[in-house]
Amino acid sequence: MNFGKVPVLAEHYRTLLVHNPSPITADFKLFIEGRDSLFSVLPREMRLAPGEDGQVTVRAVLDETLTFKDELHVLIEEGADIPVSVEAVGTGNTLVSDELSGDVLDFSHQFAGRPFSKEVTIHNMGRRQMALTINNERIDEIKKMQPKGTGKKFEVTQLPPEEQPVFLINPDKMLVRFYALNSGGACSSKKCNAARDKFR
Q1: Bridge partners, residue 18, by sequence
Q2: How many degrees, rounded to 5, is the angle at CA 163 between CA 162 and CA 168?
Q3: Contact 176/189 with Cβ under 8 angstroms?
Q4: Residue 198 burial (CB < 10 Å; 0-12/13-18/19+)?
Q5: Torsion over CA: 11, 14, 16, 17 (sign)
Q6: Across 156-184, average pLDDT
Q7: How many degrees, rounded to 5, is the angle at CA 64 between CA 60 and CA 70?
Q8: Domains of the chain
C-alpha cells in the first residue's frame, strides 16, 4: 500500500479490501508493526462470513519530509499472519506559525512616529532542526543600490532616517529545534520580533 507523496502534518487515508474465500467464518486482528508508527489502522478486529468482503482503512500523518515505511499485519485467528507493506513520502514544510498562516502580517492601527513590534512564534513540528532565514525584501533592494567596492559592510542603521526601511526583523536568522510527535517531548519553538515592515 503506497500513499505516494503526501503533505506533512495532515491526515491521509487509504483503503484495503479484505476478502474471505474460505467456506468458514474468519476472525482476524489488524495492527501496524511499528511501535511509534505514523500509520494506524481501523478497525482493529474484523469478522467475515464465507465469501464476504470487508474494508480496512489505513491512516498516515507524517511529521517529516522523509520516506516512511511500515507493515500492516492481518492476523487470522487459527490461521496465517499476512503482512502488507505500507509506505509514504512526506512533502511540504514542518514549520508552523499561526501569525504567518495568512498572506499578511497585520499590525492593525498604530500611532505615527512611535515604534511598535509584533511577536511571531514558529513551531518546528518535524524531526530535524531547521535553519530559518527571513528576508526583508526592502532591505535587499536597498543593498543592491549601495555602491560596491567600498570595503565596508552594509548596515541599514547607517542610512539617513528618510532612507531606512519602515520595518525590521529581529532576528532574521535562527535555528528552530524539532518537536517529534511521537517522542512525548515538549514543543520547542523560536520567537522572532517583527518591527515595522512586511516580510516573507
Answers
A1: 54
A2: 105
A3: yes
A4: middle
A5: positive
A6: 72
A7: 45
A8: 2-91 (2.60.40.10), 95-195 (no CATH)
DSSP string, 25-40: -EEEEEEESSTT-SEE
Highest mean pLDDT out of 37-46, 96-105, 113-122, 128-137: 37-46
State whether residue 142 is helix, strand or coil. Answer: helix
What's the CA gap between 49 and 111, in Å, rounded?
Answer: 74
Q: Are 85 and 71 in contact (CB under 8 A)?
A: yes
What does pTM read for this prediction? Answer: 0.72
pLDDT tens digits along 27-48: 999 999 998 999 999 999 999 9
User: How many CB atoms lie under 10 A from the CB of residue 62?
Assistant: 27
> Which helix (H) or strand (E) segment is 73 a member of?
strand 67-76
Q: How far apart are the C-alpha atoms of 200 and 75, rounded to whole Å?
A: 51
CA distances from 32 to 39, 98, 129, 160 (A): 7, 33, 28, 64
Grid coordinates representing 80 are 496465517
